[in-house]
Design brief:
Layout: E1 4-8, H1 13-26, E2 33-37, H2 40-44, H3 54-77, H4 79-95, H5 99-104, H6 106-116, H7 133-147, E3 155-158, E4 166-169, H8 179-193
Parallel strand pairs: 1-2
Antiparallel strand pairs: 1-3, 3-4
Helix pairs in contact: 1-8, 3-4, 4-6
Length: 212
């Protein structure tokens, strides 16, 4: 069992920052992470309200395109390769502002990302198939089964399959903790998350996301 299951959609900036905190902790401790999918296109696909604009829909579909390729990568190369591809794509989308490329030319963009990750380029064709959509939707449903509805991305599960398993939305952080600060936050969040009866800790005020 992994120490942490991390449910992500690559287009979510908050999930990206949280994931970089997790990978920072991985560099300092023997921490195993299973990278799993939560799809904003699945969560919002039923919406017909005016606030869910064509631009939002296109952004969320871009996340699904990345998930489709990631699912094919997982099938052929395993979990760690999914994490490597997420790092490659997330860095391009969030730090380098290349999200429009993923939206406008998903196959071309994912081809470049696969090249950067040292993976077969033909996997990019998976953006056009629905072969893994049932898996993507199932993992999204699993994430919400664990937390309940009305939360967002990321969702993380501590100690999956163990007696003290606990899943929560977040933590939503505006900056990536490094070094000792990353470990301090990890220990605090793990302790809170796995405390019996703990349900929610939240505030709505957020700083702007900083991807450095």
């Amino acid at each position: 069992m992994a120490d942490l299951e991390f449910f992500f959609d690559v287009v979510c900036p908050w999930a990206w920052i949280t994931s970089r905190w997790v990978t920072e902790v991985q560099t300092q401790r023997h921490l195993s992470v299973e990278w799993r999918f939560i799809s904003l296109s699945t969560i919002n696909g039923h919406r017909t309200d005016e606030a869910y604009t064509p631009n939002y829909r296109a952004v969320h579909m871009a996340g699904r395109h990345m998930h489709r390729v990631s699912a094919e990568v997982r099938q052929q190369f395993g979990n760690d390769a999914v994490g490597e591809l997420y790092t490659q794509v997330g860095d391009a989308v969030h730090r380098h502002g290349r999200r429009p490329e993923l939206i406008d030319d998903p196959e071309g963009f994912m081809t470049a990302m696969l090249a950067g990750a040292g993976m077969p380029l033909d996997l990019a064709a998976a953006v056009h198939t629905t072969a893994h959509d049932a898996l993507i939707d199932a993992e999204t449903a699993l994430a919400f089964e664990r937390t309940g509805p009305d939360v967002g991305t990321p969702i993380i599960t501590f100690h999956a399959g163990q007696a003290d398993e606990a899943s929560f939305f977040g933590p939503v952080i505006a900056e990536i903790p490094r070094g000792e600060a990353a470990l301090k936050l990890w220990d605090s969040i793990e302790a809170v998350a796995t405390t019996s009866g703990m349900a929610e800790l939240k505030r709505s005020k957020r700083g702007r996301p900083n991807f450095d």
